[in-house]
Amino acid sequence: MTSFIQVVINGIMLGSMYGIAAAGLSLIFGTMRVIYLAQGTTIVFFAFVTYWLFVKAGIDPYLCLLIVVPLAFLVGLFLFYTFFRKAAALEDKNVSLLIAVGLMYLIENAMLKVWSANPRGLDIPYADATIAGWGLRVAWVRVALLGLAVLSAFVVYLFLKRTRLGTAVRAAAEDMEATTLQGINSTWVCAISFAVGIGLAGVAGVGMATVYSFDYQFGFTFAIKALIALSLGGIGNVFGALAGGLILGVIENLTAYYISISWIEAASYGVFILVLIFLPQGLFGRREIVKKV
After folding, report:
1. Is the pTM of this model over 0.85?
2. Which candidate, 13, 24, 62, places its Cα nearest to that of 206?
3. Which of 20, 110, 164, 235 has the most CB atoms at less than 10 Å from its CB?
4. Over residues 111-133, mean pLDDT
5. What are the phi and psi torsion angles at 272 (to 5°)?
6. DSSP 3-state assignment of 120?
7. 202, 73 in Cβ contact below 8 A?
8. Calpha distance 185→290 (Å, rounded)
9. Integer Cα distance of 284 and 19 in angstroms
10. Please, what is the Cα angle at 151 between 4 and 237, to 5 degrees?
11. At a CB cut-off of 8 Å and minimum separation 6, what does 74 contact?
């Protein structure tokens, strides 16, 4: 029983990374109806930025949040106004999807040129610190990562529910045309949503750097896992996206422990397909968004 609990706990810690990424995807897709496939690569980019700040300037990775998150927000604004502003206004969202794919490979090649293909990881002094009890052991940095995920989801929830701009974002997610007719600048709303989504990628990048080794090619696989987590949790629910990530992490860990590591990807994509077929709105999504045909 202890082994099972340990596997589940490790899966929750792993899934917290998927959850942060899925929350960012949920925000971007919910407002712009754009699947930002470059989210995983963007996370890896900010992991490299965190690595640089730690190695070159000696800044603790958690203090890097004070630099990386505002930087990520500004990068999000830049990416939106440079690449997605006109495409997001088009009815055909395939254009935005293709831009995201092109941007993903552009960022990947830029990271390859700057940081090379060698995997990187942070050698932080407290990396081996653990929390132990009842026969269970959990690395402190993994607990901190879960805390970052929950805190990020809570902050975004407060932004959406307690601020006027957040109310505008939720209104745009419901009906962009009606929001525009009410005098709300839809372009600015989309820009903020995109920037906040990339800000979450910054948080995830710091978390990735503290826990995992990474390289420039890790992004696409991670983006797909975030998309699976989003489908599990349901679009339009930040905590649902986080929960979807945690569930996916548990599924992967249970598969690796009880079946085989080689079956992890099959289990992930199998869950993805089953959810899309039988529960397309996700576990925590809004039922009314699914229409009978």
Report:
1. yes
2. 62
3. 20
4. 86
5. -55, -50
6. strand
7. yes
8. 28
9. 14
10. 85
11. 195
